[in-house]
Specification:
The protein has eight helices and twelve strands. The chain has 215 residues and is of the alpha+beta class. The strands form four sheets. Strands 1-10-4-7 form a four-stranded antiparallel sheet.
């Protein structure tokens, strides 16, 4: 049986608290492209992504995907006492492992273990910050600002992802991504290698692109 202590997300949690969680957890393995849950599914469990990568998306009335974000660690749903339905479709982009905690047992632990409550509160805060960034990206940034922000904050992921996936993540067309990258290259802000890998040449100018949008 896999141990929670083996996953980085628990590295700052005392062992005795991890042992408590170990008693009520089910760790499940999901393969790439496998669906963990569908939007609207009822859940009596708290889902915590331990390792891997999960895409969150909704489907519009025409059957098209509305991409929300990708998570590599953390809460996949919110720890709420009321009845809970899954907010979005959860699809694995890579082989992933997810911890399932029975909500009623977990909430009982919160009453006697402030450290556990604090751990999940921090996870929730990080998720809220993540979605705040998503909202900022979608409602405030134009296409150039989206790309500049991604390059500054997630250059390694950018260079390890397919351009089509990056375009989907940013909710822009692949052609738009290519055009803006070429412009940033011409302007001396980035350098593109033969395999499409990007090196940042002018960090401050890149930051200025999206900081202007935040004003």
């Amino acid at each position: 049986m896999e141990q929670l202590k083996d996953f980085d997300i628990f590295k700052n949690l005392p062992q005795q608290e991890i042992d408590k969680l170990q008693e009520i957890v089910k760790i499940k393995q999901f393969n790439q492209k496998e669906i963990i849950a569908y939007e609207g599914d009822f859940s009596s469990e708290i889902l915590l992504l331990l390792v891997g990568e999960v895409k969150l998306y909704k489907v519009n009335r025409f059957g098209g995907e509305i991409f929300l974000c990708q998570l590599r660690e953390g809460l996949l749903n919110a720890p709420r006492e009321k009845e809970q339905f899954i907010f979005a479709n959860l699809e694995c982009k890579k082989d992933s492992k997810v911890a399932f905690f029975a909500k009623d047992l977990l909430f009982s632990m919160f009453e006697v273990s402030p450290k556990l409550m604090q751990f999940f509160f921090i996870q929730l805060q990080e998720k809220l910050q993540f979605f705040e960034d998503v909202i900022k990206r979608e409602l405030v940034f134009d296409s150039t600002a989206k790309i500049a922000y991604f390059l500054v904050h997630d250059l390694e992921d950018f260079n390890h992802s397919k351009k089509q996936d990056i375009a989907a993540f940013l909710n822009i067309q692949p052609e738009t991504l290519s055009r803006i990258l070429k412009k940033l290259s011409r302007d001396g802000m980035i350098l593109q290698g033969k395999e499409g890998r990007v090196q940042i040449q002018d960090l401050q100018s890149l930051k200025q692109i999206y900081k202007k949008e935040e004003i």
